[in-house]
Amino acid sequence: MMYNSNVGVQLTFNQPQACGAHTNVLLLIIVHSTFGSYDKRAAIRETWGNQKNLKDFVPILFFVPAYPDSPPEVQLSLTKESSTHPDMVQWHSVNDNIFTSKLVVSTFWIKNYCSHASYVLTVEDASIVDVSKLLRFLKSLPYSWTPLFLCDYLSPNEATLVPEGEMSKPYCSSKAFLTTLAVLEKMVNALNDHGVGLKGAWLSQIADAASVKWTNTSQHFTSTRQKPSMINELTSTNYTHSKIMIALVLNTIEGREATIMRHVWKIIQEHYSHSQEMYSDTEDNDPSPITEKPTSNILPLAILLMFVDLIIVALIFLLIFCKSKKRVRL
To answer: What family classification does the UniProt entry report for this protein (predicted)?
Structure first.
């Protein structure tokens, strides 16, 4: 059964011009959110999703599901937020599984309104994305990396949503993954053909069914799943040269996600500020930021000091010679 992008998806409000007249969209970011997550959406708009700080055009959209039984004031609040911030898409579930509905709706929207985007990053709203570093990484990718599928890679002992003993191999979490429209369409087709089994590992199952290859890309992700590791990686002075690009603030600290997101982003900004690399204009293909080497006057200064030393030594020898000659006359 093939996926028809025009069937089964209803949008309450939409942003059909989000990709605008831009013919080249390297990266589209879809942030899956909920009606009660205004603080997290606000934190993203203030921090890594602030379009004023992005050198390249990167559309960032919040996808919020519609709940038929939600109070009228909830929908009124979302509609008001949408009119103030033209970055929201509200959708109605296309099946009984909220997780796979997100995949279907995202694919539908991209195919219809931003099919020319080269890459798509899908994340949950409790996330920090270093867009500057991610863009450099994407620009550095060889053609052999397409089709691309990078995900938050988890080991079986991290399977919080999978019943114990039912997952014996590593899998991809749906909290964050980077791919292309072509891969998404293959996965939606596989979803229609095979359905989904394990709740927490559904993304890996669909990827496997669609013959989409995925590998361990954990070096690009960090999360509060490993709190000490995340803190060390984001506060390290070597952060700007690390491969970490996406941090996930998970439900282990529910209610404080927005505060943590703002604090972590402030730390990241300080890293770039200290190394003078924040949103640099470099076109270098290395995914890690590289500081431009300043022109230096050290070599001319060293040569000058060497000549001064030689003159001083010569004067000392001349003085000694004159004194010894005077003693001989006496």
So the answer is: Belongs to the glycosyltransferase 31 family.
Rounded to an integer, what distance in angstroms lies between the CA atom of residue 130 and that of residue 264? Answer: 11
Helices marked H in 236-282: 257-275
The pLDDT confidence band at residue 198, using thresholds 50, 70 and 90, is low
CA distances from 57 to 25, 146, 198, 218 (A): 7, 22, 37, 27
Instruction: Please choose, from the candidates 166, 187, 224, the residue with its C-alpha nearest in 3D space to the C-alpha of residue 111.
Output: 187
The proportion of the chain whose per-residue pLDDT surpasses 90, expressed as a percent, equals 32
Confidence of residue 119 (pLDDT cuts 50, 70, 90): very high
DSSP state of 293: P
Strand partners, 171: 154
Q: For residue 15, what are the CA distances in angstroms to 45, 48, 113?
A: 16, 20, 9
Dihedral of the alpha carbons of 15, 200, 253, 32, in degrees to the nearest 10: 0
Q: How far is CA 68 from CA 10, 15, 63, 79, 157, in A?
A: 13, 21, 16, 15, 36
Q: Name the residue with higher pLDDT: 58 or 165.
A: 58
pLDDT at 153: 75
| 146 within 8 A of 212, measured Cβ to Cβ | no
Q: Which residues of 198-326 form beta strands (DSSP E)?
A: 221-223, 246-248
**Which among 232, 237, 230 has a CA at the least distance from the CA of 253?**
230
